Amino acid sequence: MTWERGLQRCWRVAIAMAALHGPVCAQEPAPAAAPIPIEAGRTAFLKGDYEASLTAARKATEADANYPEFVALEIRTLLETGKYQEAAERVNELGRRAAFDPELALEAGRALRASGERDQAAALMERAARFEEPRPAKGKSRSTVAFAELLLEHRVDAKMVLDRLLEPAKKIDPEGREPYRALGKLALANHDRQLAAEYFREGLKHFPGDPDFNLGLAQAGLELPAANREPGIASYLDLALKANPKHSAALLYKATQLTGRKSFKEAKEVLQQVLAINPDHPEAWAGLAAIAFVQDQEEDAEAAIERARKIDKEDPRVPEIIGTALAGQYRFEEGIKYLEEARQLDPLSPSILFELGSNQLRFGQLEAGWQNVAMAHEQDPYSVAAFNLITLRDKLKDYPVREKDGVRLRMSPEDMAVFGTRALELSARAKTTLADKYGIKLAAPVMVEMLPKQEDFAIRTFGLPGGESFLGVCFGPLITATSPRGRLGRANWEAVLWHEMAHTITLDASRHRIPRWLSEGISVFEEREVHAGWGQGMTAEFRQRFLDGEVPPVSQLDESFAGEDIMFGYYHSSLVAEYIVRNFGIKAMRGILADLAAGTPVADAIAKHTKPGEEMEKDFLDYARKIAKAYGPDLDWSPLGDEEYVAYRENPAAWVAANPKRYAATMMRVSALTEERKWQESKLLLEKLIAAEPNNREAFNPYMSLALACRGLGDETGERTALLKLLAIDSNASDAAARLLELGGKLSAAERAAQGDQMLQTNPFQENAYRTLAAAAMESGDARGNREALESLLALEPRDAGRIHYELATLLRKSDPRASRRQVLQALEENPRFQAALELLSTFPAAPSP
Fold first, then answer.
1. Beta-strand (E) ranges in 405-499?
2. DSSP assignment string, 159-185
3. 104 vs 59, 60, 74, 408, CA distance in Å?
4. Within 154-297, where are the H helices?
5. For residues 117 and 547, what is the distance between their CA atoms, to the nearest angstrom?
6. Which residue ranges in the chain fall short of pLDDT 50?
7. I need a surface site. Which of 67, 88, 638, 663 has the fewest CB within 10 A?
């Protein structure tokens, strides 16, 4: 009796029974020849030796008990190498028998689908899924896992599959490979990268070097420990490709990562490696189409799409890959179009629905976006990313929205009450100023969402927690940012909003075709245009890079944003933007953006409006070096060598006196003198450093040390001068702003208002800043400013709330009697015996009886 006969009785009865709901017959294999080893073929497949894999797969005969496993391996190998028609013919040879074994049915269904026979594939898999589920058994987990994957293909409840099949299979067969692989893939599909990593790590313990598990760890976002690195191996992805250089899934993932980093040349080379294995790989052709679209090579893109659809014209993966890649390059309008096409081909795909919805949310299509994310959550309630977004949506419903001059601001009620007006006015001013400067009119309002928790910001922005290094992100019509509530004193939130609004303008002006380096460069440049202390400036490190020529050419600046050189990349790019505007005018920059919008490559656009490529590169470097040379030209910024440090430690005072230009040594000496409270000696050294570079932007800054020295000497005027200069250079110096408020002194109303304003740029929850602003506004007769400061102060729930309510009531007595009366009543709620409030209340007409 051959292997299939023992299953035919089961087929006739079970064909109509739904999987996982009381199967009516058990599969009892008929006596057969002893199984022959298949591991050699599977090992060859994992190593990428597909010829050996195929040869091994064809050794078995129908008389062998494990014949279906060999046929499954044969079909899998044919699919991996692009022999779709041959694989489909092999399935057709099997006929109905292809459904009798779960692993064989899974591969057979994939073969039919790959060859464009989608209806037949679905019917075959459905038949196979209606058989009795294989009970997990030691050494036989492959069959259980394959059955589980058949059910997942038909979108059976993932948790049911997990609990009833996959986890039991792993428990009963801990030495089996397939449960770890399937569990990890399921976790990745649900965006649970942490859980996926746990499964893949566990799998690697049993199967060291397995390329699938190493790829899974790469996809889960894990970094390869330094101890495991070697030349040419820096990541889990590298390990996967070392084990199998022809691993198509790993190569496709690598190409996707390279595309995301705009390394298009390298990405295309990797995709060609995939096509060398499988000339008709639809995902590889879709990846090439996406790159061609990003590079505005539409003919090449259409040709690649045609190749991707050569066999299966209704493959939803093709538009899904193109749409996802385009959206990842901020080409949202085009990306959404392809994702909608993918949804039409597979209306219930959770991954397509989520990708479409999340990008619609980023592009300001809020209603449609939330609907698609909700549908994704409905189809896959275990997707962490969809669940996170739906949870955030419910929270955002309670957040107020205010609008002004084409800007819509959403904040938590608590933040809106404290600094909502300030944030809205700044955003509107930035939008108006920058739109006028770059000569554009936005077609729709800009939505600015400032979220109080970093986790909420990350979920709204990326779909998952993380992204702690980001302060704000711009997608064009949407800006997301973290509220300063969670980052008090760590960054200037006003500079962040201005920076992101500049992105909105340049993205719109270029139809989202601007390279990242130029968009970031313009944004940092525009920060400095508002306030010298907002954007990045020259430092000793940057100075040396420019003087030594250790800078990438302008054409390769995007690469600076893909690694550890990102901070220098921001400054370098901003200098390029500054160079263009200063030397060729804002009209040239407008022209560059307009040409980018028309599909002109960035190098050609810049050359057209400035100078030819090499000439422009040289001219820019001369410009940058001039700025670099002017930064502390008489100082030696280099760190101390080992021998120098030993000599310095023997006699610091003498060494600094003998080497007065060594910045590092002088600042070390200042630090020691500060600890010893030798203020005058410290001050003399600091004044010399500052004279050598008045705009010092080093992290260990002499102005703060000078302020401390002046404070120690009782020199309030000197301390204030040092703090003001520091804030003029670096507006992120929150401690300096707070100290200025403490100093007080005989200052004009305008000076005090400027100090309060400076404090609020890094900490809008500082009570003393609002008190300072209110007092300055009252002195200068600014009733509106006084009212706004007092209302913000009240939102912080100060201890003297009754007194603040009374001050507001007094201020509003003539201009807004109803509001004034409300404020005096609130003052009396705080303190019923508040005599001044009682007297003020008596001046109002009696309230009408209800």
1. 407-411, 446-451, 472-474, 478-482
2. HHHIIIIIHHHHHH-TT-SHHHHHHHH
3. 16, 14, 10, 56
4. 158-161, 167-172, 178-189, 193-206, 211-219, 236-243, 248-260, 264-277, 282-294
5. 63
6. 1-32
7. 638
